[in-house]
Structure formats: structure tokens, C-alpha cells
Design brief:
By secondary structure, this protein is of the alpha/beta class. Helices cover about 40% and strands about 15% of the residues. α8 runs parallel beside α9. The radius of gyration is 21 Å and the shape is globular. The two termini are about 35 Å apart.
């Protein structure tokens, strides 16, 4: 299997050492090699993004190829394309970004590296809202306009992502970060959301996330869909966290079983508490440089 052979070569390269005289050495060894994690993601594109998509496709291709090579050398089979922008527009990928990633898709495929496109959950940008009267009662929560009830706007956003899934096929996964404020900005929801959902945040989040999951899977069944719900930490066994525990338990019952749910750094006990109440697989986000002090 070509990708397996490639990673076997990566293992071989990692065993090479150079002697004091400068000669390459390979000590005899028997290798039993398999991954501890099925999905292994590195955030290499994030650091390069300020230099990407400035109208220089040849340079973009070289930067992305370098990120792909680094991911492969680390045996990471996912490359996080979390494209943070200083101005939150466009809502998903710009044409220049689509072109850049399309050009390196065969190169990534040959090394068993998939893209993981990550976006802020939204129904539109301020720029789009200014020209569309349907947004008049849709609040801005953090960087984006957000609603759990304006289904026409949600569906339009879903179609944008579905087109990406159709274009990249099985070479990409998709993630969405709910607004990164307390309870995902639920307190700032519109009057329409209050009338429809009352205080059922789990039902509203499952409705929103389920729509994106359905349209992506319809055109790319092998693509994985991940959501970051708020909060993405805490020990759900603690009595003081009962509201959060009830939220995740209900949310989990409403979401598709194969949707990934993100959780950040924590202890084994904290992760175990999530597994007791959440039936979906957990996506572990971990950084030694994080403000969480891992």
C-alpha cells in the first residue's frame, strides 16, 4: 500500500544516524510500527498563513508543499488549514485559497496527508449582512453573524461548504468552531432564536451542526466533520458543572455518532468524564505553548 510504504520510509529515515566521521549508520532493528492515534493533525499552515494567498500562486505552492512535507515527516496525516484572518471575510475559503490548496492536493494525497479546513461557525460576515436585509435581526457574535433559527441563511452557508467538499472530495475534513465566548454566545441570540429554542442550547447547536454534517457527507462520505462546542474543557463529573454535563449529554444524543467533538488539554480523569456522557469520538487539541498551561 503506497502510503504505508511511504511511512515505512519515514520510519527508516528516523533511524538513520551520522557517525563522528560523518558516515551514515543504521543499526539493525526490528520495527513494529503503528499509530497511537488514527488521526494525527499538525497546525503547520496556520503559521504560514500571513504569507499565503497574496496573489503569488507559485510561492503559495512551495509554502504548502513544505507544510505537507513537515506533516509527513512527523507522521501527521492531517494538516490543519485554520486560516485565521484579521478581517473575517470571506466566511469560508476565498477563490485564491481554493486554488492554492487545489494545486497541492495531489502532492498531499501521495503522502497520505489530508487537509482539515477549520472555520468559525457563522451565517455570514458583516460585509454580507450590510447588503442583505435578512440579517437585520441576526446578531454579531465575536467575528461573525450567527443564528440558530434563520434556516435560509444557515442553508446558504452550508451550500458554500458543500461546494468545497465536492471539490476536495476525500482529501479534506471540515471543522467548525462555535463562537468562542461563554456558552457559544447563547446569551446574545436573536429574538427569533429565543422564540424557537427557548433555553434549549443543545437542541439549537445540534440543529446547526447537523445541517453542516449532512451537506458535507452527502457529497464526500469519507470526510470527517468536527465541531468545537463551548466549553471545550471542564470535568463533567464535578457537581458544579452539572449544567455543562446536561448540555453535552443532550447534545450528544442529538448529533450524528461519527461527528468529532473537540476537547482541549486536560487530565485523564477529565477526558474520562467526557467519555461517560458523550458517545461521539473526541478530537484532542493539545499544545505545550497554550495559555491553558498544559
Amino acid at each position: 500500500e503506497p502510503v504505508g510504504e511511504f511511512y515505512g520510509c519515514v520510519t527508516l529515515a528516523q533511524l538513520l544516524r551520522r557517525s563522528e566521521s560523518g558516515e551514515l549508520m543504521l543499526h539493525p532493528a526490528e520495527v513494529a510500527d503503528w499509530p497511537d492515534f488514527k488521526l494525527r493533525c499538525t497546525a503547520g499552515v496556520m503559521a504560514a498563513y500571513p504569507a499565503l494567498c497574496q496573489g503569488k500562486l507559485a510561492e503559495d505552492e512551495q509554502l504548502l508543499r513544505q507544510a505537507i512535507r513537515t506533516a509527513a515527516a512527523l507522521k501527521c496525516n492531517l494538516l490543519d488549514a485554520n486560516l485565521y484572518r484579521s478581517v473575517p471575510e470571506p466566511e469560508f475559503l476565498a477563490p485564491a485559497e481554493v486554488e492554492a490548496f487545489t494545486r497541492v492536493k495531489p502532492y498531499a494525497d501521495s503522502r497520505g496527508v489530508r487537509f482539515r479546513f477549520f472555520f468559525g461557525a457563522n451565517v455570514g460576515s458583516d460585509k454580507r449582512a450590510q447588503a442583505d436585509p435578512r440579517f437585520r435581526d441576526v446578531p454579531r457574535i465575536r467575528e461573525w453573524r450567527m443564528s440558530w433559527s434563520h434556516d435560509e441563511l444557515i442553508d446558504e452557508s452550508c451550500r458554500q461548504v458543500q461546494e468545497l467538499a465536492r471539490q476536495f472530495g476525500d482529501s479534506a475534513d471540515y471543522g467548525f468552531h462555535m463562537p468562542d465566548v461563554h456558552e457559544g454566545g447563547w446569551a446574545n441570540r436573536s429574538e427569533r432564536c429565543r422564540a424557537r429554542w427557548a433555553d434549549d442550547r443543545a437542541g439549537a447547536d445540534a440543529h446547526f451542526a447537523g445541517k453542516f454534517h449532512a451537506v458535507i457527507k452527502a457529497v464526500s462520505p469519507a470526510s470527517r466533520v468536527e465541531f468545537v462546542f463551548y466549553p471545550y474543557c471542564f470535568n463533567l463529573d464535578y457537581p458544579g458543572n452539572v449544567r455543562t454535563r446536561d448540555y453535552f449529554q443532550k447534545l450528544s444524543s442529538l448529533l450524528p455518532e461519527d461527528m468529532l467533538i473537540a476537547r482541549r488539554e486536560g487530565s485523564k480523569e477529565e477526558y474520562d468524564s467526557w467519555r461517560r456522557f458523550i458517545r461521539q469520538p473526541l478530537s484532542v487539541w493539545w499544545s505545550q505553548e497554550t495559555f491553558w498551561g498544559s
